[in-house]
Amino acid sequence: MTSPPGDEVHPSVAAPTSMLGSRSIAPDFARGFMLVLIAVANVPAFLWDRPTGTGAHGTGGSLADRIVQTVGITAVDSRIYPMFAFLFGYGIVQLFSRQRAAGTEPRDARRLLRRRHWWMLAFGFVHAALLWYGDILGGYAIVGLVLVGLFLTRSDRVIAIWAGVLLALSASLAVLPLLGPATPQPGDGSIAAGGLDANAIPGFWAALTERITTWAALVVPGTVLGLIVPIAVLLGMLAARHRVLDAPASHLPLLRRCAVGGIALGWATGLVLALQNLGTLPVSRTADWFFLPLYTLGGLFGGLGYVALFGLIAVRIERARATPGATRGRLQGFADAVQALGKRSLSGYLAQSVVFSPVLAAWGLGWGGYLSDWSGAVFAIAVWAATVALAVHWERLGRRGPAEQLLRRLAYPRPVTGAPASESTP
């Protein structure tokens, strides 16, 4: 493991790219739309003072609540974070490639990535301590530190083999509970958020202690050791080497197969737990624990399917933009707005917690004790829409998001004294 970043100056590292430069549509569009799904996935954990069924979802409720629960368990939960991990791995290779194209030595480019990941870990700790124990930045940063050191400059074959090995291991662990001799017993064995819920604690400092404990003891180890995130990051790194999202029109057959197969598998495995949450399957809730590993594995394929789907959508957007004389309709404007948020995905992700925690948690306004599943989802989508509007404003000003600006100021080395400053915003 490397040591944390220090104050040394590395003038051989290229300056950050400008926000005004050309960027590929697919990665940013996928990141921007991913954030609404993250908001919908996270908001149930902020709805407290109610019985829970599968995950943090409630049980029963109105028809609208049951629809939101079913859609969330089937298509959102455990499907979005593998998508996030894939795009994280894709971005690692993108940044490394840009640095190498600018003349940066491989050693200095790797050092830059390590600094970014150490600072991401610090961001994650602060985020978890102050706002949201489910923070994923810290765990992804650790995965990035490990995989950059092991695989960044290895061959495609090595990366593919190791991704396959980890996938085979994960599949074995997913199927094993279903083949075991144990039989689910009657009773309530539903997958609920166990232990003390930090969002239900009325005191800020007491909640802070519980948030740190949950994040450090459960969330980060689960992210790093759960295999799904490392697999998705490796696949993202491999895809970036072949510019699958940078030039999606050149990979249409692959994207179509991944979109159809991945989403179908992700939704099929998710539907099992969704039906369990509704109480429609003829097995006890104890069986949830037998289905959970397969559900999580299906989430990997579902997340990859979503990435492929956004790649296909990006092709349509690019073709519409390239059509001579074509007018920019509402769909084009929506795509531009989502892409603007995708460029500032770190700020967009953190902004959700800046609103969710003080408004919904018991230590703040406590609205989470009154909202139901459907109203919580509406609230989450509204928060995402507000971040889209803010991102569009920053896009028009040619500014990065505040979190991106801070991370770049911390991660990129200071220019040598007397050297001309970069025109791009660090």
Automatic annotation (TrEMBL):
Alphabetical UniProt keywords: Membrane, Transmembrane, Transmembrane helix
Segments forming domain DUF418: 239-412
Keyword Cytoplasm: no
Keyword DNA repair: no
Membrane spanning stretches: 29-48, 80-97, 118-147, 159-179, 214-238, 258-278, 290-315, 349-368, 374-392
InterPro entries on file: Bact_Transport_Assoc, DUF418
Top-rank taxon, per record: Bacteria
Protein name as it appears in the record: Uncharacterized membrane protein YeiB
Source organism of the structure: Tsukamurella pulmonis
